[in-house]
Specification:
The protein is of the alpha/beta class. Helix content is 36%, strand content 19%. The chain contains 22 helices and 29 strands. Helix 3 links the parallel strand 1 and strand 2. The longest helix is centred in the C-terminal third of the chain and has 23 residues. It is found in: Cytoplasm.
């Protein structure tokens, strides 16, 4: 295999094999087939980049086809948004089609199937049909209407089309095999009655084709050569082919379905139904809320089309499902913005600085580099004066040894300006610092070449001149969910994992060069991150969205929390070695505080499961997670809880047994669950070990009294 072949993903390899086997290259045709029932999200971007990427690679046309077969959920708004997103991503489609373009042809083919005895009208209720269809391990049985005459089926189907029947009274089903091991082949639905207004066909139709029927036939009508979809459609391929078998003319191209792994991103939900719920429940401010994983939301936040395309190219095309870290998407964005975004200065949490030895009324215009990554970006002028704003967190009156910012008696450099030294502060009646007084070194101007300008100082701060600063609304966005898999937990609503701090709105101050900034302009606020001018911005009020920080704060937070767990596990060994109760309480308190500070639901659950083993330190730690974490008793799998309690009650350690008994006593378990350990507790009472303490015996009695 050549080097080029090795770089091909598996779908490209299939296409290459098809061409080698004689498939005409000029017959290659692909399509992107969205359902217009929501906005596109980052998962769709992967499919878009794949489909249109194949078109570019093989110089083949790519159709945009809207599979608009369900008027109950589809709207023109979604059609327009999808087209806008595709164009913004940089892709052009060859032909624009709609499944609704083919409604008459699909109906005519359904008549053909009825006449062949391969489709029939079923009048059962949906519940009866579900029962009659069987289960994955039990074959289905023929329904009472399966052997209706062709004439009766034709008459009923025409009545369905004409609107003679209410919704739910009849459906058209394909007659295939009620005993098939693939449940999708057990006489699947082809048409249902819907008295709904369609965004394109109006009220012309009273019946609408099911997706599985319309999709493959639409591919055939458009002569799509390779129908590429995600892995959840693997089981649908047999049905896709069956429908094609009924109408295929071997003089035409026959589409073939191939499946690839969809994009799964952590700290995100990809279900359009759940995204719609976020919008409808006003958890977010619309489909283009910058916290949403929609393409329009990412665009509004400040993502670039290039960064999204790069991300999709980086993750590649695979056959197996996996979860991609959202940090990779943010990395691709930083990499792109780092090359293109102009550097500016802004202060989001301002505190006033007065340079006491700088002449009152004096102003300077200093040179500032626009982007050190771009030689052609040039310089801009930044005004400097006696009174400035710096970030509040960049000053401590009394600083620790490794504080590399401004403090009393210490020097820092102001970016593009002078070295200053903290001298004193002014406080209000409540002791809050309102002003910082500093002095500056007159010979230390950046770039002046003087000895003073070359002097090394602890750090460099960004700033804005108060007299020239422009106020701006800054929307500081964070991830929408605090858990890495918010919709994967049994008996938990994904909304339980909303990040309550996903949006903070502050009034910041930006340098005057931004007065002419336009919507979608992107900047790096030095030392703070990348920001985008929001569409709410006006000539009278600048509004910025925080796109992404300069560093991955979540990765650092995740490492910190994981390290906290690991360190606590090491500390817990000391619990068994210290001699006194106060020492044990001190260790437990420290570990409890650490566990209580961890918000990552999945990390806590995984740590809990991992520590259900015969090691006494592990068992004690799992009991501490139960007691001190933010998780409730219902958040834990009952089988895991039972296993932990049984192992703990049988532990050789009185400390483990005692903590377990305390959890059984104090936590909110139902009576049945508690009683399931009664025999084990009675055994402990009647057969105390050498390690059994008076305290454990006392708790035993308290728990038994609850049973």
């Amino acid at each position: 295999m050549s080097t080029e072949d090795k770089s091909l993903h598996f779908i490209e390899q299939i296409i290459e094999e098809n061409i080698t086997d004689g498939f005409p290259k000029d017959k290659l045709r692909f399509r992107f087939p969205p359902e217009p029932n929501g906005y596109l999200h980052i998962g769709h971007a992967k499919s878009i980049c794949l489909q249109f990427g194949l078109g570019l690679r093989y110089n083949a046309p790519v159709n945009l086809r809207f599979d608009d077969t369900n008027p109950a959920k589809e709207e023109q708004e979604y059609v327009d948004a999808i087209k806008d997103d595709l164009q913004w991503l940089g892709f052009k489609w060859d032909e624009e089609h709609y499944a609704s373009d083919y409604f008459q042809q699909l109906y005519d083919w359904a008549i053909v199937l009825i006449n062949k005895g391969k489709a029939y009208v079923d009048s059962q209720s949906s519940e009866d049909m579900a029962t009659q269809k069987g289960t994955p391990t039990q074959p289905g049985v023929d329904g009472p209407y399966r052997n209706r005459s062709i004439e009766e089926n034709l008459s009923l189907f025409e009545g369905m089309k004409n609107g003679d029947f209410p919704e739910g009274t009849h459906v058209l089903r394909a007659k295939i095999d009620m005993k098939s091991t693939n449940m999708l082949m057990r006489d699947p639905l082809m048409y249902r009655i819907l008295h709904r207004h369609h965004h394109r066909t109006g009220n012309d139709w009273k019946i609408y084709p099911m997706y599985d029927y319309a999709h493959g036939e639409s591919d055939y009508i458009e002569q799509i050569s390779h129908s590429i979809c995600t892995l959840e459609f693997v089981m649908h391929r047999e049905l896709y082919n069956w429908f094609l078998d009924q109408i295929y003319d071997n003089s035409l191209v026959r589409p073939h379905q191939y499946e690839f792994a969809r994009l799964n991103l952590n700290y995100t939900v990809m279900s359009k139904r759940k995204l719609l719920q976020l919008v409808q429940d006003k958890v977010v401010n619309g489909w283009d809320d910058p916290r949403m994983p929609t393409i329009s939301g990412l665009r509004r936040r400040g993502y670039t089309a290039n960064a999204i395309r790069k991300f999709c190219d980086t993750i590649g095309v695979a056959k197996r499902e996996n979860v991609i870290d959202v940090s990779l998407l943010e990395f691709c964005l930083r990499e792109d913005l780092n090359k293109t975004a102009p550097r500016v200065m802004a202060v989001l949490d301002p505190i006033k600085v007065i340079i006491t030895n700088y002449p009152e009324g004096k102003e300077e215009s200093l040179d500032a580099e626009n982007n050190q990554e771009d030689e052609t970006a040039g310089f801009r002028k930044v005004p400097f004066s006696r009174e400035l704003y710096i970030e509040r967190e960049d000053f401590l009156e009394v600083a620790p040894a490794k504080f590399f910012r401004l403090s009393i008696g210490n020097e820092v450099r102001l970016k593009n300006a002078y070295i200053i030294k903290g001298e004193s502060v002014v406080k209000d009646n409540e002791g809050n610092i309102t002003e910082i007084h500093v002095s500056y070194d007159t010979d230390s101007l950046s770039g002046s070449g003087s000895e003073a300008s070359k002097r090394k100082v602890a750090g460099t701060l960004h700033w804005v001149s108060i007299a020239h600063a422009i106020p701006a609304e800054v929307r500081v966005y964070d991830r929408l969910f605090i858990d890495e898999a918010p919709d994967s937990h049994k008996e938990k609503n994904f909304l339980d994992f909303m990040n309550q701090n996903s949006l903070e709105i502050v009034t910041g101050y930006v340098e005057p060069s931004l007065v002419s900034a336009e919507i979608d302009n992107k900047f790096q606020f030095q030392r703070l991150g990348y920001f985008n001018v929001d569409k709410d911005s006006t000539a009278l009020k600048l509004v910025f969205n925080k796109t992404v920080g300069l560093k991955d704060a979540w990765e650092e937070r995740g490492k910190k929390e994981l390290n906290s767990i690991n360190n606590s596990l090491k500390e817990i060994n000391k619990y068994f070695k210290v001699a006194t109760k106060p020492e044990r309480l001190e260790i437990e308190s420290a570990i409890g505080e650490t566990i209580g500070a961890i918000a990552n639901y999945s990390l806590l659950q995984n740590s809990f499961k991992k520590n259900i083993n015969n090691n006494k330190a592990s068992l004690l730690f799992a009991n501490f997670i139960l007691k001190y974490s933010s998780l409730k008793e219902a958040d834990f799998d009952q089988e895991d809880l039972s296993k932990l309690y049984l192992m703990s009650l049988r532990s050789e350690s009185t400390f483990v047994r005692s903590k377990t008994l305390l959890n059984l006593r104090d936590l909110e378990y139902d009576e049945i669950f508690r009683n399931s350990f009664k025999d084990e507790i009675l055994r402990l009472k009647s057969n105390p070990t050498k390690s059994t303490t008076e305290r454990e015996t006392e708790i035993l009695e308290q728990v038994l009294n609850q049973l």
